[in-house]
Amino acid sequence: MIKIALVGNPNSGKTTLFNGLTGSNQSVGNWPGVTVEKKSGKLKHDQFEAEIIDLPGIYSLSTVSLEEEISRKYIMNNQIDLIINIVDASNLERNLFLTYQLLDSEIPIIVALNCMDLIAKKLDSLNVHALQEELKVPVIPITASKKHGIIELIDFLAKSDFSHQRHLMTYREDIEKTLSDFEQILGQRLLAIRFFEDGLKAVEFMQIDQKTIAILDKSCQENKKNFSIDFDMVLPNYRYDRIVEVCEKVLLKSKISVVSKTEKIDRILTNRWLGLPLFGIIMFLVFFLAFGPIGTWLTGGFVKGIDWFFTLITQTANSLNMASWVSSLLTNGVFGGLAAVVGFLPQLMILFFALSILEDSGYMARAAFIMDRALSKFGLSGKAFIPMMIGFGCSVPAIVSTRTLDRDEDRKITMMIIPFISCGAKAPIYGVFAGALFFNYSYLIVFSMYILGIVVAILSAMLFKKTILKSDNANYIMELPEYRAPTAKNTLLHTWERSKSFLIKAGTVLLGAFIVIWFFSYFGFVDGSFRLLAKDEIEYSILGIIGKFILPVFRPIGFTSWKSTVAIMTGFAAKESVVGTLGILYGITGDAIQNGALLYEPIRMAFSSVQAYAFMAFALLASPCIAAMVAMKRELRSWKWFAFSIIYELTVAYLVALLIFQFGSMDTGTMLSVIFAIFVLAVVFFTFKSIIKKKGNVCGSCNNCAVSGSCHLPKKDDFEKTNFDNKKGDDFET
Amino acid sequence: MTLKDVLPGEKCIIKNIYVNNLRKRIIDMGLTTGTVITVKKMAPLGDPMEIVVRGYSLTIRKAEARMIDVEKIIGAKP
């Protein structure tokens, strides 16, 4: 069986072609970077069988971000028999750059020229035959989204013979000379080319010795003299010059210049004045749909259905005369827990649906463009906005959607701050406490919780940037794709795929967690015997015992009763169970989550307003629910980072609650003197900071700026000196 | 002048690229010396900027734009 890899620019239609070739149903987005892991499928034809590998999109063989590394490795290691290079015909120049890089390798290549319908729409004409002559590889025109040309492509694959050597690219004379110098040292033409473009980064994987590096460096310095432009720009420049020539030959631009649909839409959606308000309205609509009347209504109906099913199970369990612990496990552990999580499904599905539409249409890229400035202030990239926004609904999809971020560090930081953002499930907690204790100010108190969450999230992002995940500000460079009308099939597919992974998680990891929590809360020692407890005996449960045991730790943040600690602990299963548990502990009959007012009286008895505020802050900031933790572990792909973020979140929650409680319980005199002390300290701090800062004026281009010595950016001369410096390889990362 | 100083609607031609951060990505996406760039607009908050290069829309931050040396094409039709 032959191995065929699909290689192409991000958002050029690889996944659509992959679906067309293999008949599978992978979701497709109009947002660069949809394919983050490689996928493979089988192509079956009566004459041959092939394994098709869908690689993440790359702009070039040089760029080495996490996903792009996968693609590059595949191509460089010769693990494939054939490359189908998918080229977006509506964006020919840039797409051909990768094609020309691929042509340097010895792997057979077929070019699939996609989006031919767009060419026709623009009234341009493209001479496929001439392009084939220029590239000296077969070129097959297709329109992947409409399934045009796919059969022709498969038939072509069936009848072609790729065993003979392909014609390799030749370069200008001076370039060829340099290449042959490098080839003598490295032993391989492709490697020589990669080294010419990328420097030592390109040969890192070979682990060459210091002596060879010295020889390479010397050869580099000598050859550098032959070129007037930056050494690493020689090849790209030459390639692009050639591509422009080719494009002039094959592509006949229509004389009638039409303002494209995309441009018309963008005149409104990314307008200087309208862009921001419209963005706000679109985001509001998404949330209104999911968490407003429609979402609540759907969830209500859904929960009723689950409840009905739940009662049926309980009745069946009871009527079958099963052991009491079995029926308790089923009703309280398994279904109780699952109902709490699965109840979110309708809202999540609406959220996923709306987000798929935004993604497929191409608006998501604009959202990142609009928000980048605001987020860059905190060291994040505009692309981090969407995950954070989703975080207000539910942390789980928010964490998963960080995949669209460019860099691993940015992804980690965004993931770790998302749990601080107040998700929908935390709202009942504020509702109950604010309603019970703050009367007329309750709205302000609830609002302040949301603000607290955002502030802590932003401060954490800045802290991470400065300390453990040290890196420059998140990078941002992004293509704005053309708008496309989202197709119903793809949108539904997207929604379904994401919902499915949520359900699978609920059914596996979460189920296990719920059973453990059930065991902890329904078993315990009463009068010396270990047995199943009734609902109001939670005091004797293992959880109750732990709650009492750890209470001293929580006293400084204002917890006076083990009931508070137990309620917080059950919050790890699902945040809304904090209120539910309080209901049980205070002996409320009826559903405390749905009718918070029932809890007002006992809360007024047990909490002072400062205690309540500290409690709310702790519930908001302490580590997220199990569902979110599982998502986090999966996306961080490391126990170390996972453990760190959980510990960090607990610590921050504790410190913030401590601050609130200790400060809040002071009498007015002490409070004023503390405020005064903080004020003085702040003044001193900022004065010093501004003195230090003055030394390094921010400068513009480091070409001829007078103070450029103090700026961290390289001067022109320095830059040329370090052009092939070993360290510079790090800057290639995106 | 640098790309940062080019106003929306104006065209310019790249003289040299001093960008260190994201350098390869910027070059490989088609910003090579001699390339013509049209600045389309600034984001509503003033940064990043949208440029049209080689027939497609690219958005880049001013931090990178100010490291790209350009020459304005005078009298170019917007």
Question: Quick gist of this model?
Answer:
The complex is a heterodimer of chains A (734) and B (78). With 734 residues, chain A is α/β, with parallel strands linked by helices.
Structural features, described:
The complex is a heterodimer of chains A (734) and B (78). Among the domains of chain A are: 2-159, P-loop containing nucleotide triphosphate hydrolases (Rossmann fold, 3-Layer(aba) Sandwich), CATH 3.40.50; 173-252, Helix Hairpins, CATH 1.10.287; 696-734, no CATH class. In chain A, 59% of the residues lie in helices and 7% in strands. Chain A contains 31 helices and eleven strands. Chain A has a six-stranded mixed sheet, with helices on both faces. In chain A, strands 6-8 form a two-stranded antiparallel sheet. A two-stranded antiparallel ribbon of chain A has the order 10-11. Residues 694-734 of chain A have low confidence and may be disordered. Chain B has two helices and five strands; from the N terminus they run E-H-E-E-E-H-E. Chains A and B meet through helix 3, helix 10, helix 12, helix 16 and strand 9 of A and helix 1 and strand 4 of B.
Secondary structure layout plus pairing:
The complex is a heterodimer of chains A (about 725) and B (about 80).
Chain A: E1 2-8, H1 14-22, E2 39-44, E3 49-54, H2 66-76, E4 82-88, H3 92-103, E5 109-114, H4 116-121, E6 125-126, H5 128-135, E7 139-141, H6 150-159, H7 173-186, H8 189-198, H9 210-224, H10 234-250, E8 251-252, H11 261-269, H12 275-291, H13 293-319, H14 324-342, H15 345-361, H16 363-376, H17 385-391, H18 395-400, H19 408-417, H20 427-437, H21 442-466, E9 477-479, H22 488-522, E10 523-526, E11 529-532, H23 542-554, H24 562-570, H25 577-585, H26 600-606, H27 609-621, H28 626-636, H29 639-664, H30 668-695, H31 716-721
Parallel strand pairs in A: 1-3, 1-4, 4-5, 5-7
Antiparallel strand pairs in A: 2-3, 6-8, 10-11
Helix pairs in contact in A: 3-10, 5-10, 7-8, 7-9, 12-13, 12-15, 13-14, 13-15, 14-22, 15-22, 19-21, 20-21, 20-26, 20-27, 21-27, 23-24, 24-25, 27-29, 28-29
Chain B: E1 11-17, H1 23-28, E2 36-42, E3 49-53, E4 56-60, H2 62-65, E5 68-72
Antiparallel strand pairs in B: 1-2, 1-5, 2-3, 3-4
